[in-house]
Structures are given as C-alpha cells and as structure tokens.
Amino acid sequence: MLYLERWKVILIIGVCALSLLYAAPNLLGRSTVEWLRNNTPGIVPSQTVNLGLDLRGGSHLLLEVATDAVIDEKHQSLVDQIRTELRGAKVGYTDLGTADGTVHFKLTDSAQEDKAKDIVRGIDRELDVSINSSVFTIRMTPVRILEIKRDALERSIDIVRRRIDETGTREPSIQRQGENRILVQLPGVENPEHIKQLLGQTAKMTFRLVDEAASATLGQGGNLPPGTERLPMLEADGQFIVVQKRVMVSGDSLTDAQPSPASQGGWAVNFSFDSLGGKRFGEATRNNVGRLFAIVLDNKVISAPVINEPIMGGSGQITGRFTSQAAQDLALLLRAGALPAPIKVLEERTVGPGLGADSIKAGATASLIGLCLVMVFIALYYGLFGLFANIALLFNIAMIFAALSILQATLTLPGIAGIVLTIGTALDANVLVFERIREELRLGRSPISAIDAGYNRALSAIIDANMTTLIAAVLLFIFGSGPVKGFAVTLSIGIVTSIFSALMVTRLIVVWWLRAKKPKTIPI
Amino acid sequence: MFHPLHLIPPNTKIDFVAKRWLAFGVTILLVLLTVASLSTKGLNLGIDFKGGILIEAKAPHAVDVSALRAELGLLNLGETSLQEFGGPDSVLIRVQRQEGGEEAQQRAVETVRAKLGAEYEYRRVEVVGPTVGNELLHAGILATVLAVLAIGVYVGVRFEWQFGLAAFIATLHDVFVTVGLYSVLQLDFNLTAIAALLTLAGYSINDTVVVFDRIRETLRRQKATDLRAVINDAVNQTLSRTLMTAGTTLLALLPLVLMGGTTLINFSAALTWGILVGTYSSIYVAAALLIYMPPLRRIETLRPAPAKK
Q: Is residue A350 within 8 Å of residue A190, measured between CB atoms?
C-alpha cells in the first residue's frame, strides 16, 4: 500500500493539475474568457461551465410538429394524382377518397383492373396496393411514412432555426427530440410571445387567381365551381372570396422579402422570385391582365389586387394595411420559408434574468457555506487526516467543474444542489477508510498496516455503495428532462470524481506523509 | 495540533436487533400515515404533471394580493391561485390547465400577462400542456420504480438475493415515506421532487450497502452463526461512519434549506428528511429484515472453515 506505482502517481498528479487548469476559466471574468478563446490556440482551456436557462435566464420551448398532417397531405395529393391519371386513361371509378390512412376507389368496370393497377403503380412504385372485387385500397409502406415524417421534422427544424435566427436571438439551441418534437432553448429571451407567434404560423404562401363571378354570387348559396375554394379575407372579418385551387406561383420560389413603407401609408412587403418563379409569375400575370389575383397565406387571403400589367421583373409588392411589425414579421416568415406542417407549443419555461441571477447567488452562497461547515467538521473529527480529506475535496470540486466545462454539460439549479450533495457524500469514501483505520488501530495494528487494511477493507463497500447511487443517477438522466437531466449529469460526475479523489488523491497524500514522517502513531 | 474528536465512542454495544419491535412500530406508523395521507389528501401535483400555468412576477411596488386575486378571478380561466412569494412585491400565480389543448394554454398566458400589464417583471413563466404533463408523470414514476428495482438487483447480484430483497424493501420504504412527506405537507410534487426521490434512493442504498458489506464480511470471518449477533456487531462497527456521513451530508444541505432560495427549498427539505429516514431504514428495515430471511448459504459454506485451522 505504501508503494504506489509510478504511473499511478503520475496519473493522479496529472488529473489534479489538468482539473485545476480546466476549471480555472470559470474563475475568470467573461471578457478574459472571450479573449482566451479568440487569441490563444485551441489547446488553452477556455471553456466555462454552460449555465442552464434556469440560471442564466431565457426561454425553453418544446414544440410538436404535426407530422400526421404531412401524411394527410400526401394522401390528398395522391387522390388528386389518381383522379387525373384515371380520367386521362378513361378508366371509370367511383368512391375515390381517403380513410384510415388509406386511399381507396372502386372501378366501375372490373375488366380494367390491370390497367388501373399499372396506373397506380406508375404514380409511385412503392405503394402497397390491394384489390378486392374491384375495390382498390392503397397505402404507403410504413417505411415510407416514417421517412416522410422524419423528413418533415428535419425540414421543420431547419425552418424553425431560420426563423429564430432572423429574429436576432443569440446562441439559440434547436434540437430534435423524439419522433416529432423540437426543443428550442433561447438564452436571454424574457418574453417568447413574439417567437411563439412566429413559430405558430406555417407561412405557406401562394399566388392564385380569383374567381370573380363566383365571389360576387357567394352570398346567394349554390355550389362553388369545381377547382375553386372559399377563403376568408385576412383584413375584413367575415368576408370571403372564391379563389382557384390551382396555384400560379408558390412561396417556395421566393428568394427575398423585405418590409417597405407603402405609398398609400402603412407598410408593405417587397418580394422577389427566383428565375423560374419569376418567369411563371410573369406568364401568369401576362395572360390575366385585368383580373384579380389573391395572395394567400395559410389559407387566408392577405390581399387580392388587380393585375394592371404583366409583372415581368420577378419581383412585386404585397400591400395590405400592415403595421410596421406585421410587415416585418411577414417578410421574415417569407424569407425563412414555410413549415411543412403546423407546430404547437407543448411546454414553455421562461426564467427572467433577475431570478436566474438570484438563483446563482443563493446557490453559490449556500454551497460555499456548506463546504466550509463540512471542511471544519471533518478537520475537527479526523485531525490531520481530515485535512488530507479536505485537500482531496477541493481537488474533487475542481474536477467536477473541469468535467462540466470540458463536456459542456449544463449546470442547472438542481445541479448546484447536486454539487452540494456531492460535497456531503464525497467525504463518505474517506470516512469509510478513516473509520476502518481507526478500527484496525484499536485492534492493535501498526500504523502502516492499519492504513493498508483500512484502504483494502473499505474498498468493496465504497465501490458497491457508489455503484448503486450511480444507477439512480443514470436512470434520472434517461428519464429526466430539462433541469433534472442537468442534475443527473452533475451527480454522476460527482460520484466518479469522489471515488477518484478518495481512493487516489487522499491516498497519495497519505503515502507521501507516511514516507516523509515515518510516524509511530497516527493522529486519526 | 489537532486532537481528533471521537464523538461516537468506539466499541459501542447497542443491541439494535432487540429494539427492532419498537422500530417496526415506527415503520408501520410511518407507512400507515403515508397511506392515510395519500388516500385522503393525495399529492399536490405541480404543473409539471398536471399541466397548467405558473407565473412568478415582481412589481415595482407592494402588490395588493386580494385585489389582484379578485381581478384574476374575473378572467374566466377556471381555478386560479395567487400568493405572495418571497416578498410583498412578488406574487406566484397558478392557473389550472385549460380545456382545449395546447393552444388554449398559450392563450391563457397571454390573458394573464395582459391583465398584469407591463410594469411587472416576469421572473418565471411555466406553461405545461396536457400531453407533456402526462408523459412527464409517467416517465417520473417509471424512473423511480426502475431505480429502486435496479438497486435491489445490483445488491442481489453483488451480495445474495436476501440482501437484494431487503435493500429493495428498505429503499422502497424510504421513497414511499418521502412521498408521504410531500403528501402530508402538501409540498409541490414536481420534476424536482422526482429528482429528490431518486437521489435519496441512491443515498439510502449507499448507507444500506455499507452495513450489508460489514455483515457479509463478518459472516465470512466469524464462526458464530448467530445472525443477530452478526447484525448487531456490523451495525455497531459501522455506526460511527453512518452517523458521520449522515452528519456531513446534512451539514452541507442545511445552508441550502435555509438560504437556497424558494425554488430549492422543497428539494433540500425532502432530501434532509430522506437522509434521516434512509439512515434509520438501513439499520431497522434493511438489516432487521435479514433476520427473517437469513442468508444461509454463506453461513453454511463457511462453517467448516475454522475446522481446517
């Protein structure tokens, strides 16, 4: 026991030195850390502990993407495709529609089964088609559905990121969570209402022609002409207008959108198309001079101006009676692009900077006082060995902060409590050893043999006891969310460093002391 | 120089086993209290699990709590509660979960914000929709149950099944009785409470394992087959350590209870209680249970050992 292998000694000293080094940036001011990060090679430690939103202030939003809506949309477009193709091939059918995640129709002439099957296959090879006495049931394969949903989620994350970036939020974190969720963390955001409002819109924009005749007779009942739909006007409550379902140009073709003051007062949004979109818009306007076209956003008509002349330049202006904020928001949404599916906010947790600062102060003060109390107590109780344990405890804390900084794990308020708890339990391993040494001394062993036995015999208890705590911490990490997860990380790191500091650091100090003093009795 | 303290006299010979009846009485009482409280009062589920809205706001002046409460009552948001929080200028507002899915919660927050106006500083706003609330509750229960089970299995594998079962029951006891504390005091049972439960499960088992480790060691070394004597010796020999560790941990937690801020008070208080209960249960639940399911195999296989000498 008195002999510690050279590599172990080097390892212990190395870990302690590195811990101090990597924990050090946390003691420096923010500007110094920034300077270090920018002006020194990457090897110089400049990472600090990543404070959770509950400590630094900010907003945490959990979003859910309605990926099912994307599937519904796919089904709907499949129905449209099948209708067009069957009509084109003069295949008679009835009952074309969607139900329970399938598309179905019935052939009027069962002799055309093979032809119809080829047509459906032609649309998409991977479709699962079953035919039962002329009734076609078509479904997408589960793999395909999963793919579509995953793709929708990825695109949503992308759009959410772009929209948030456009608002100028600093250091946002946007992560995928589970199958259809997005976790958004916005440090420093005190009131996420505006961002929630921006994320709550899909912002699907289309330019379509207005059916003026049908719009005029809208109030008089009767059916809408085929291929049109009735949409509400955004500005005028309760007013509707009939527009064609066919889209002239969609918002996907936009390359830019900017708010600008409108000539008749208020604000407008200037937009420009990419070359293909510009060309299509030009053609559509040239063929329909004198008619109305509708600018439709999320199934609401923003405005329906007259086409005075062909718009060939690939750019135009949306004039509604916008406020400056509304024009800015619309421009932002158009620049960032449309969400593939609607998004809902499932959970919001916002902490103001005042509370965050108070929490850090209270947590830090409480921890320091706790630390002092414990150190005094241990020193009184175990004397010189207590001092050894205290030195190891300080290294232990350095190790925790170094690990948190290197891993960029998030320190949350419960995490601070985790560190406090670690301070309390970190000494447990030392206590086990010291109590054992006392016992062995009472049994009449010599100092060295008592210390040796103390370390050896306490080992199994230390390992088993800490393993069980680690199990609890890991489960907490797996099932916890947000701040609780941060707590689990802190706790786990604390357990590992505690074992190391008790079994290695304290031991090294004890060995050095024994070699230097060669004591006849041990003050424990 | 230092004169190390010996607060706990060495070689204590307390007959813990003989006092187990008293302890069983206490244990049964605690468990019955918990059951009674859970079935009458239930748990005060926080918005993490129930869904709803929680707003902590601070005004630049003292708040007229009853006037504000009356105004909030007129907002038609169902059950709302308002209390002073940490000072006369701060309030904590809770609004029940709104009918009508996720969007309804969002609308309700905006309504409350509009009512309070711009002069308030919003220190904390939490909105949990119905979907997430249920999931969090299930995940929390699952984590706690799995942790207690996994701990039992680990001890069962490292020691023997009797130890594992005893550890499982003891840890379950600690967690259950702490849930009881939450119920009796009607503390906010939220995600942090789950963290407290799991942490105390880890701490309590830590303590139990140390006692078990000593029982195992003594069983191996002694020819004595009197399990009661073995348990008594083991508990006495580790008593100093048990109290020391509980002491240092409580000492570290104490400042957190007293000044850790409103958010951490419940958490630290539950842990403090958990450490007391955990220390007690290591001796009087875990170790005492072994009397009724003696780890026979070890004793029998070890009995011939001294004969070889």
A: yes
Residue spans of the domains in chain A: they are 6-56+352-517, 58-199, 204-321
Cα four-point dihedral sign B227, B232, B236, B241: positive
- Top-level CATH class of B52-128? alpha beta
**Min distance A91 CA to chain B CA atoms (Å):** 44
> Given the structure tokens 């970036």, which residue do they identify?
A165
Check residue B3 and give its pLDDT.
Answer: 58
pLDDT level of residue A221 (50, 70, 90 thresholds): low
pLDDT at B34: 95
Name which residue leads in pLDDT, A224 or A441. A441
Local structure of residue A41 (DSSP, 8 states): -
Instruction: Count, in order, helices (H) and strands (E) of chain B.
Output: 11, 6
Q: The complex's ipTM?
A: 0.83
pLDDT at B224: 58
Please say whether the beta carbons of B185 and B42 come within 8 A. Answer: no
User: B127 contacts in A (CB within 8 Å)?
Assistant: 345, 347-349
- In this complex, do A370 and B255 lie within 8 Å of one another by their Cβ atoms? yes
**Mean pLDDT confidence for A241-264:** 86
Residues of chain B neighbouring A60 (CB-CB closer than 8 A): none
Residues of A within 8 A of B121 (CB-CB) are 352, 354
Residues pairing with A63 in the sheet:
A182, A345
Distance from CA of A258 to the nearest CA of B (A): 28
Among A192, A189, A181, CA closest to A157:
A181
Q: What is the pLDDT of residues A444-461, one digit of tens each?
A: 888 888 888 888 888 888
**Chain B residue with minimal CA distance to A413?**
B264
Superfamily designation of domain B17-45+133-303: Multidrug efflux transporter AcrB transmembrane domain (1.20.1640.10)
Residue B275 C-alpha, separation from nearest chain A C-alpha, in angstroms? 11
Rounded average pLDDT over A281-291: 88
From 3.40.50.150, 3.20.20.80, 3.30.1360.200, 3.40.930.10, which CATH number describes the A204-321 domain? 3.30.1360.200
- Regions of chain B where pLDDT drops below 70: 1-4, 7, 10, 222-225, 296-309
Mutate one of A382, A464, A513 to test the B interface: name it (highest B CB count within 10 A): A464
Angstrom distances, CA of residue A176 to CA of A167, A179, A186, A262, B160 = 20, 8, 15, 40, 43
DSSP secondary structure string, A484-498?
HHHHHHHHHHHHHHH
Q: Which of A43-52, A165-174, A338-347, A404-413 has the weakest average pLDDT? A: A43-52
- Architecture of the domain delimited by A6-56+352-517: Up-down Bundle (1.20)
pLDDT of residue A397: 92
Chain A residue with minimum CA distance to B217: A457
